[in-house]
Design brief:
Blueprint lengths: L1 E4 L2 E4 L3 H10 L5 E4 L8 H4 L4 E2 L8 H11 L6 H21 L5 E2 L2 E2 L1 E2 L9 E2 L6 H14 L4 E4 L2 E9 L2 E9 L5 E5 L2 E4 L20 H9 L3 E2 L4 E8 L7 E2 L2 H5 L3 E3 L19 H15 L4 E4 L5 H7 L1 H9 L9 E10 L2 E3 L11 E3 L4 E2 L12 H16 L22 H18 L3 E2 L1 H17 L7 H22 L8 E2 L11 E5 L6 E4 L8
Parallel strand pairs: 1-12, 2-3, 2-13, 3-9, 13-21, 20-22, 23-24
Antiparallel strand pairs: 4-8, 5-6, 7-8, 10-11, 11-12, 14-20, 14-25, 15-16, 15-19, 17-18, 18-19, 25-26
Helix pairs in contact: 1-5, 1-11, 3-4, 4-11, 6-14, 12-13, 12-14, 13-14
């Protein structure tokens, strides 16, 4: 077992992790640990853009109001204000550093997406913003000689003494060796968990591993019952869901039911650009009522050449799948896309465990509420990745390191066991914790997760079996939060409690071996 020392360990290589590593490198030596390659993440595949109030007639205040509205009363207002104000600064810094966002006639092309009142979405390469932005920051990371990457390496345990972090244990998939990385701070930027659903837009690495590690170490988790389903993912039987960016609807695409009717016009004044939870729910209802597996996305009425130019990557990907984006009706249905809640942090991205930070989709910083506003996620990564790095740099080294570490191994014979249970968990999540839920289904799912978790609780040292336990633990927490929240709000809809209830305008906070805690949402005082 190899023992290493770094000032900061960043786990995850999406935009949040890369931003955190880049800023941390100003203060010391940084290890960045990722279980695949550095450029594999939700951030990399993001087709949408990054929201920033840089246009004329726009302001951080308006951006904040849109975020609060989409968040359905569960956004912590101080956190949102930090994101929209510092977020604008971070985006302008990126531009100063050389990041090229799309322009026309020397002006930034600002897009419109669901629940935004202004055009404020910056794109790069049309529909390749995530790739362009992640690669830009990744290049900056590679230029820093004091950042050392550990690819194909999974963090398997957070190490701590007296409720403070002392490092991580990790497994190198290529060599089978265990690493112990001693550190004064660990920044978790491990992304979301939507791959625990059988239909998801996420890469296969997005299974909530980092959240499970934090839970095991005693970190608090907030609002994890809220899962955002992307409304317009391509539906092909037996094939992976392919996300068709919300920006496509922002440019005027219509959602049609099987009768050819544009149904969202009768439901919300913003029609196809209503908040994602509203659009996804009503697509779900159309599918359920028609007994079909999808509805249609239509761009037939739009300028074909403009669409091909604006969404070149999507156009060619669909072409390879046999669809003409501008002339065909595209079959779409919702798919699990974004985990709105996560590891609870303060305004500096620090958890209740000293030295453990979290940023990006794995975190619950308070900015997302019950339903993420489109294109706020990349902005949150930049803002809180920087804040985490700056606070981590002010910590002192642990006085001593006295862990007895048991190596984690991978036994190939257990891979099929993992796949079997992962399929069972994913089916339960899709059936009982999808867009709509009820008490009976939630209790059934939670019992399944409890049984699986208890069955594998003693298999801490085999990676595949540990992953089963971690998935079951996270899914059980989602089910517990959903059972506790007896209302419908944002990305959590219960048929047995169909209305929003002001008594539930609180964060549901869970912690291992502790009772559920209800925490008030932080509101800004209005002196007027």
């Amino acid at each position: 077992m190899q023992i290493l020392e770094y000032d900061t360990v960043v786990v995850g290589s999406g935009l949040a992790g890369l931003a955190a590593a880049f800023h941390s490198s100003k203060f010391g030596h940084v290890a960045i640990v990722t279980k695949s390659e550095l450029d594999t993440s939700n951030s990399y595949y993001a087709q949408g853009g990054i929201a920033a109030a840089i246009g004329s007639g726009d302001s951080p205040e308006l951006h904040m109001q849109d975020t609060l509205s989409a968040g359905r009363g569960l956004c912590d207002e101080d956190a949102v204000r930090i994101m929209v104000t510092e977020g604008k600064e971070r985006v302008l810094e990126l531009i100063e550093m050389g990041m090229e966002f799309d322009k026309k006639d020397d002006q930034f092309v600002l897009g419109l997406e669901g629940a935004h009142s202004k055009r404020r979405i910056l794109h790069a390469g049309g529909d390749a913003t995530g790739k362009k932005l992640t690669c830009f920051i990744l290049q900056k990371v590679k230029e820093q000689k004091n950042i050392i990457p550990f690819e194909y390496t999974a963090a398997v345990q957070l190490l701590k003494d007296n409720n403070r972090i002392t490092g991580i244990q990790a497994l190198d998939f290529r060599t089978g060796k265990n690493l112990v990385i001693k550190s004064k701070a660990v920044i978790l930027a491990t992304g979301g968990l939507s791959r625990i659903y059988s239909r998801s837009t996420n890469p296969h690495t997005a299974t909530g591993d980092g959240i499970a590690l934090a839970v095991e170490a005693g970190a608090r988790v907030a609002d994890i019952e809220f899962i955002q389903f992307h409304p317009s993912a391509l539906y092909i039987p037996g094939k992976e869901a392919y996300l068709i960016s919300e920006a496509v609807r922002g440019e005027g695409a219509w959602l049609l039911n099987h009768a050819g009717k544009r149904f969202m016009k009768d439901i919300h004044p913003m029609a196809e650009l209503a908040p994602r939870d509203v659009v996804a729910y009503h697509i779900f209802k159309q599918i359920r009522d028609s007994e079909n597996k999808h509805i249609w996305l239509s761009l037939k009425h739009l300028d074909a050449e403009k669409i091909k130019s604006r969404f070149g990557n999507i156009y060619f990907h669909l072409k390879n799948l046999g669809f003409d984006m501008v002339n065909d009706l595209l079959p779409v249905s919702p798919a699990a896309h974004y985990s709105v809640g996560g590891i609870k942090t303060n305004l500096n991205a620090e958890t209740n465990i000293k030295g453990l930070f979290c940023c990006g989709e794995a975190a619950s910083t308070g900015v997302m509420g019950a339903n993420r506003l489109a294109s706020n996620s990349l902005l949150e990564c930049l803002v809180f990745g920087k804040r985490a790095s700056e606070k981590a740099a002010r910590l002192n080294w642990p006085a001593e390191f006295s862990h007895q570490i048991t190596p984690v191994i991978t036994q190939p014979r257990n891979e099929n066991i993992f796949l079997q249970y992962q399929h069972e968990i994913a089916s339960q999540m899709m059936d009982n914790l999808g867009i709509v839920r009820d008490k009976k289904g939630l209790e059934e799912a939670r019992e399944v997760f409890r049984v699986i978790s208890s069955r594998f609780k003693d298999f801490q040292n085999d990676y595949n079996l540990l992953k089963i336990k971690n998935s079951a633990t996270i899914c059980s927490m989602i089910a517990t939060g959903a059972l506790t929240r007896e209302e419908s709000r944002g990305g959590h809809i219960r048929t047995d409690f169909p209305n929003e209830d002001p008594r539930w305008a609180v964060h549901i906070v869970q912690q291992k071996d502790q009772k559920i805690n209800l925490v008030e949402v932080r509101r800004e005082k209005n002196d007027g």
